[in-house]
Amino acid sequence: MGQTPGGEAAPKAMILPLLASIVVAGAPKPISPDLFGIFFEDLNAAADGGLYAELVQNRSFEYSPLDRKEWNGLTAWTLVKERGGEGRASLRTGAPLNPDNPHYVSLVVEKGAVGLRNEGFDGIVLRKGETYDLALFACAFAGQPGTITVRLENEAGAVLASAVLGAPSDDWRKQTATLVSSGDTEGGRLVVLASGKGATGLDMVSLFPRKTFRGRANGLRPDLAQAIADLQPKFVRFPGGCVVHGGWLGLSGMYDWKKTVGPVEGRRAQPNQWGYHQTTGLGYFEYFQFCEDIGAKPLPVVPAAVSCQNTDSNWGKGQEALPLAAMKGYIQDVLDLVEYANGPATSKWGRVRAAAGHPKPFGLEYLAIGNEEAITPVFESRFKMVHDAVRARYPKLKLIGTVGPFPSGEDFDAGWRFARQERLGLVDEHYYMPPDWFWDNLARYDGYDRGAAKVYAGEYAAHEKGRENTLRAALAEAAYLTGLERDGDVVRLASYAPLLAKQGHTQWRPDLIYFDNRTVCPSVNYEVQRLFMRNAGDFHLPAAVETAGGTLASSVVRESKSGDVIVKIVSRAETPIRATVDLSSIKGLAPRAARTVLTGDPLAENRFGEPARVLPKLDTLPFAPKTTLEIPPSSLTVLRLKTR
Ligand code: AHR
Description:
Layout: E1 2-3, E2 9-10, E3 18-24, E4 29-30, E5 36-39, E6 77-92, E7 104-118, E8 124-126, E9 131-143, E10 148-153, E11 159-165, E12 173-180, E13 185-195, E14 198-209, H1 222-229, E15 235-238, H2 242-245, E16 270-272, E17 276-278, H3 284-294, E18 297-302, H4 324-342, H5 348-355, E19 366-369, H6 377-393, E20 398-402, H7 410-421, E21 426-433, H8 435-440, E22 454-462, H9 471-486, E23 491-496, E24 500-502, E25 513-515, E26 520-522, H10 524-534, E27 539-540, E28 543-546, E29 552-558, E30 565-571, E31 577-582, E32 589-599, E33 617-622, E34 626-631, E35 635-643
Parallel strand pairs: 3-31, 5-15, 5-23, 15-18, 18-19, 19-20, 20-21, 21-22, 22-23, 24-25
Antiparallel strand pairs: 1-2, 3-28, 4-27, 6-7, 7-13, 7-14, 8-13, 9-12, 9-14, 10-11, 10-13, 16-17, 25-26, 27-29, 29-30, 30-35, 31-34, 32-33, 32-35
Helix pairs in contact: 4-5, 4-6, 9-10
The structure holds alpha-L-arabinofuranose (AHR).
Residues 41, 240-242, 371-372, 405, 459, 497-498, 508 line the site of alpha-L-arabinofuranose.
């Protein structure tokens, strides 16, 4: 075996036809310290039945044909009669617990016990010995209702835990129970039974595992939240996406942050434009809290006071604007959001945050206005009203505009024209394009005007024809990210989209993380994102690069807090490349590098049943300031070197 200058063994007889070199020279350039983050949107059942840990489906009986045509207020619930039970369950709206969520169920008992069984979101997963917190609101409407019994059972009906709650009172009262499961099941159910002759109103029937991410009440599913936390994103964009402006639901679907904070029973559930229902249990408070818990900056997106141009499926032509008379109130809502996030606990909206258990401000730094709107005169007028009011009141906030849904074209050009005219600080570009597009656009931002708005690449993904999460697509994204690092003075933020997708509820592919009720299955694209997020820098080190005939992309950054130098090399070659990495211009480099390599069949995917086909492999190697390495075909290599 021969030794390379850096000491790495090279196989003797192997023919290595491709050569590349990366020679670092020149002054380091500061780049965005927040470059790589994530984008969470509630599609593919990402929130209810997904990241939000609530186990009861349709807990407040608000499902309706507006969510999905075959749904109604009793969807996911089944009538149960026991002990010679006679009676019925019916939906009511008079004297509700929450006028914004007016439906509740009335259990009328004539004899025995009558109740409802909830099937959860594709069943309820219960684990032996684990604790579950049950809560419901009950109210006696007629007669003399007796006690309420709650129980957890498995798919065969065997009881795994039960509790008896008090009889309902004459007004809505919360009742709670702690349930410890005596067995394991994936098809668990919750049964709520009323007894005593009379009518009992039930609403907000909720069951949470005690174990949530960081033990938060009304919290998140720990394994899924941990998979996100493991990325170490610098920011989280939420709540959409199309969900923000209501997509084809139009203005009625516009996301109203104020209806998503405060006690969950007081929030407003609403149809989700992706064809289901959002409880808003995962609301603005939970988003902010999650960001804080994982050390990411929050990046909320508020509607630009116009609906999506696809409203009522009126493709491209359906944009509606909030009436001018409503603008003052709407602008105030946006200003109030900033106060909710950043105001002192004594301010009007800071008090609401403090009442939720977070007196300290959340430190909001970014706010996006709009998502992929068609750039029309009416959009421009509404955007400007919101933008200018927020800029005047909070001049330090980094506001983000939009340049339409595509990486080029009419809206893109109009959006950029408008951004220049209004001197916007940042605009949001989106691109869902084939893998080759990403390789062809490595230099997209090299020529961007450094004096104009900076860029947030808010949604991107490499789309194979069949929308698979191949290694090839992931590497196209990786190559592109090296370009974003190089132009990290212009591109300040970037987030892959979409983030989450539940098995059996996946409406959009590809996604970053797939899951079902038991398992989390990160895609190979996730591995790329994780490697970039965990190896991000805040200075780009310029390099002269020979790319082996366009098969290689690379970037070199430095992370100030550790002093580490990080080299990323992406290859789409079908054969190995011998790449010389010359870091001689960097002082005090350690003589060894930590190396992580992600490689495999370019068409390989990490998916359910085969979750670990392509995983990063870690080793260390001797590294002289100039070292020749073998870069495997279809690979991402990350070298991390300490400096003294
Ligand atoms: O990421 C899925 C969708 O794609 C987003 O909701 C929207 O902004 C884009 O069109």
